[in-house]
Write a structure and sequence with these properties.
Mean pLDDT: 89
Oligomer: single chain
Helix content: 25-40%
Low-confidence stretches: 1-9, 244-255
Order of helices and strands: EEHHEHEEHEHHEEEEEEEE
Shape: globular
Largest sheet: 12 strands, antiparallel
Amino acid sequence: MKGLKAVTSGAFSSKESALAVREAVISLLTSEAALETVQSFSSGETTPRPRVIGCLPDDLRQVCHSEITQITTWSEERWALRSDNSVALVDKQEFEATPASLRFSYSDSLRTGVEPALAVRGLLSGIRSRDVADAFSHAYGDKIEYKSSDVARYRDGHYLRRHADTFADRVFGVLTFLSPDWSHSHGGELVVEAPDGSVDCIAPEPGTLAMLPIRPGFQHLVSRIRTSDWVRFSVASHFSKGGSDSSKADAGEIV
């Protein structure tokens, strides 16, 4: 965005920058590529494919990345599988005592919001906007609502094992990758497995937005980070069929 540096302040951006991020996200998620992807998720295809639908302009991605690296309220979390296939948050000692096959995830999460990171808030505001929900609903052929977003940081050794996410009427997800300078040696790819055994691997390239189906038989994971020189910042957003208890969709405010 022209003049972006002029509207930033210290580690965090101005509302003008946040609104530019929001506008860019809405444009990407209501683009022809995104809506064709949503339509494929609702069709009779047995193996709809995850797809990259575009990238944030790099100046806007940089603002979001700069902000998210300054947030200090990250919580390192370890989750383990239980015998009933549920997952539970456990402490370091219990996690290390858990068999490797039952260690579900190890990463950093934000549980207290993204204040005062206005650009990141703009990104989230765009994802959950009414414009996006309405466009998705039209393409899907059924009411679609924003459900939730997880803001995550994956550092050296962090990962998320394969899982399905088939709950709360979820039907697809949107991944936004914010980190620069990714290479194959870093790890952190999104891997999606289809019921027919096919596998798609989506690289966390800077600014990429990707969409993936959530339905029975599909599994996805985040491969282990294999370096201390690169950190994966990402936002995973989930969309559900209407009728479930969705989070509010905003009317343009930065939240």
